[in-house]
# Entry
Amino acid sequence: MKPTLVILAAGMASRYGSMKQTEGFGPSGETIMDYSIYDAIQSGFGKVVFIIREEFETVFRSIVEPRWKDKIELDYVFQHLSKYTEHSEVPAERTKPWGTAHAVLCASEKVAEPFAVINADDFYGKDGFDKAFRFLTTECNDTVYAIIGYELLKTLSDNGTVNRGVCQVDRNGNLSAIAERLNVAMVDGKIICEDDQTPHELPLDTSVSMNFWCFSPSIFRYTEKLFMDFLNENILKPKAEFFIPIVADRFINDGVGVIKVIPTSAQWFGVTYKEDAPEVKKSLDALIEKGAYPPNLWQ
# Structure
């Protein structure tokens, strides 16, 4: 059975200021998401499931269906605030989605095979998808998950600070923890974190999470249990979010299993800020010129 790619596209894109998941960056109007789908197909994935907000459905379908419906199986899941909150009443002031781990939980309706999870607005590179496919088809099981680890230096923005999940890796190459570091930027040739944590400076090759995870369907039952715990503690906090690293950290610390850190040398890029858009287009043009991608992904 071929693995599935789950694409998280239900965020509000607050810092970017628009629905960046559907903005064209490639020469034929390709979105960043299109390059991920193309890479996933080339690597061997068999289905794509989009996690979206219901009000985005018409726009999403109008863009995605003509491009990909004849090339790979497509499906859609809505991340409603009410999903998996059966025993809790969602406060009226809660408008923000519950977070990435809740989004993954919503995918349980359409995913019954090993799967990878990515963000819609991040470019991950073909090497990441090749390694994810290899893991999902040869190693993934109910007690062994994985994360594709990116080199911190290759994930920074020239237009402002970023937040990054710094991976702590044990001697066996497994994830021991993820520390969310804030306001990360290159300063005088050094990567500096302007937050209250230590160390203040991070090595250039530090492994970080860009939300590229590999799971078996067993993650759904475990996540649902943790989401109930999260709601009991945070239901009245309108900005509290239930993130994938919360689930990963508990999975490790509860002794349920291990999460392998699979390193990739691929160059990440994305559109954290509107000012990042020209650089993204330039990077894609360079990859096309080198032959990594065709000028039109659908021909």
Notes: Residues 33 and 120 are 5 Å apart (CA to CA). The longest strand covers residues 175-187. The first helix runs from residue 32 to 43.
